[in-house]
């Protein structure tokens, strides 16, 4: 920045001392041209940067983090939220569809929990209105954690260190499922991934993305991908039909938003997934049928927009999507308090 100001000053001085000559500004040699002095954020783009998370109540977040990692919220004592939303793998399990209690293979792909606080609703069909409501689902789901809310609470209530911590955070003597899900949601709200290279570019750093990535973004916009994948999360903010131009071929029996609204117009509508960190959250689509990003882009182009991309176009779209990987949540792995003599025993499942 200083170098640039200096260069400008010298140039200006040059103009003054030789004012009788032609006033053609001398180009600054590439070698001394510094990076953009003051970064000018790009405005009017359909995609916007995400901000770092704000932590309102650190003690609540800390408790929620423990619960997120605690397998004792499952009947088997084996499955935690992190089993299927692995924070070492982009907040997903990288499986076609999730595996839960008794090795149950679930019907649907696990979406990432990263940036999920930005979603207009939770689940592919939006059946939970927010993270707190969502968090109660898997604990009681027979195919996931297979517990009951009462049993999960009684496990926590039997662990003195949890009782103390809930007391500290909620100022109440008893634990209930409402407090459990409130704390988990508070932790999830912090799972935000700022500083993707693409965000740096949006914030005015021209060098943050490559030519190919920029070409991919231009194509992403001009093709119409941004009709559905826009805003800070590039998704999460609307329900859209899967298969607008041509039908989506799938063996999955999942019907989408119609399951919630009973409105025939919502058949095969799904919450548009975020494309943040999409490089990490393979395989893709609610049925996990696209193993690679290249395949997902190909299918999207064809069935949503009626476009068939050349290999180069596909590669540039994929390159752009990979520039959306942000800083992954960084924290110390929580140490969970030990069970007590009265903690109900877990019931692990066999083969
Ligand atoms: C056995 C695997 C499994 C476990 C355990 C599990 N989840 Fe999920 N999760 C899923 C699947 C699969 C979905 C998508 C279900 C659907 O949309 O119908 C999902 C959806 C979600 C979503 C919605 C994200 C979105 O974009 O719609 C959130 C948030 C979430 N889970 C958080 C949690 C929390 C918190 C826990 C622990 C209390 C948990 N999950 C436990 C598999 C799991
Ligand atoms: C009409 C709305 C719409 C348009 C246009 C659209 N998408 Fe999608 N996109 C969706 C929906 C809905 C899904 C989830 C579909 C499902 O799994 O059933 C999705 C899923 C994806 C996924 C998979 C994400 C994941 O985590 O599973 C990628 C990648 C993707 N879109 C990229 C693109 C690209 C690239 C374009 C432009 C070529 C595009 N989309 C155009 C609505 C749209």
From TrEMBL:
<dbReference type="Pfam" id="PF03150">
    <property type="entry name" value="CCP_MauG"/>
</dbReference>
<keyword id="KW-0732">Signal</keyword>
<keyword id="KW-0575">Peroxidase</keyword>
<keyword id="KW-0249">Electron transport</keyword>
<keyword id="KW-0408">Iron</keyword>
<keyword id="KW-0349">Heme</keyword>
<feature type="binding site" description="covalent">
    <location>
        <position position="228"/>
    </location>
    <ligand>
        <name>heme c 2</name>
    </ligand>
</feature>
<dbReference type="InterPro" id="IPR004852">
    <property type="entry name" value="Di-haem_cyt_c_peroxidsae"/>
</dbReference>
<keyword id="KW-0574">Periplasm</keyword>
<dbReference type="InterPro" id="IPR009056">
    <property type="entry name" value="Cyt_c-like_dom"/>
</dbReference>
<dbReference type="GO" id="GO:0046872">
    <property type="term" value="F:metal ion binding"/>
</dbReference>
<dbReference type="InterPro" id="IPR051395">
    <property type="entry name" value="Cytochrome_c_Peroxidase/MauG"/>
</dbReference>
<protein>
    <submittedName>
        <fullName>Cytochrome-c peroxidase</fullName>
        <ecNumber>1.11.1.5</ecNumber>
    </submittedName>
</protein>
<dbReference type="GO" id="GO:0020037">
    <property type="term" value="F:heme binding"/>
</dbReference>
<feature type="domain" description="Cytochrome c">
    <location>
        <begin position="211"/>
        <end position="325"/>
    </location>
</feature>
<dbReference type="GO" id="GO:0042597">
    <property type="term" value="C:periplasmic space"/>
</dbReference>
<feature type="binding site" description="axial binding residue">
    <location>
        <position position="300"/>
    </location>
    <ligand>
        <name>heme c 2</name>
    </ligand>
</feature>
<feature type="binding site" description="axial binding residue">
    <location>
        <position position="229"/>
    </location>
    <ligand>
        <name>heme c 2</name>
    </ligand>
</feature>
<keyword id="KW-0813">Transport</keyword>
<feature type="binding site" description="covalent">
    <location>
        <position position="225"/>
    </location>
    <ligand>
        <name>heme c 2</name>
    </ligand>
</feature>
<feature type="binding site" description="axial binding residue">
    <location>
        <position position="101"/>
    </location>
    <ligand>
        <name>heme c 1</name>
    </ligand>
</feature>
<feature type="region of interest" description="Disordered">
    <location>
        <begin position="329"/>
        <end position="351"/>
    </location>
</feature>
<dbReference type="InterPro" id="IPR026259">
    <property type="entry name" value="MauG/Cytc_peroxidase"/>
</dbReference>
<keyword id="KW-0479">Metal-binding</keyword>
<feature type="binding site" description="covalent">
    <location>
        <position position="84"/>
    </location>
    <ligand>
        <name>heme c 1</name>
    </ligand>
</feature>
<dbReference type="GO" id="GO:0004130">
    <property type="term" value="F:cytochrome-c peroxidase activity"/>
</dbReference>
<keyword id="KW-0560">Oxidoreductase</keyword>
<dbReference type="InterPro" id="IPR036909">
    <property type="entry name" value="Cyt_c-like_dom_sf"/>
</dbReference>
<feature type="binding site" description="axial binding residue">
    <location>
        <position position="85"/>
    </location>
    <ligand>
        <name>heme c 1</name>
    </ligand>
</feature>
<feature type="domain" description="Cytochrome c">
    <location>
        <begin position="59"/>
        <end position="167"/>
    </location>
</feature>
<feature type="binding site" description="covalent">
    <location>
        <position position="81"/>
    </location>
    <ligand>
        <name>heme c 1</name>
    </ligand>
</feature>
<dbReference type="GO" id="GO:0009055">
    <property type="term" value="F:electron transfer activity"/>
</dbReference>
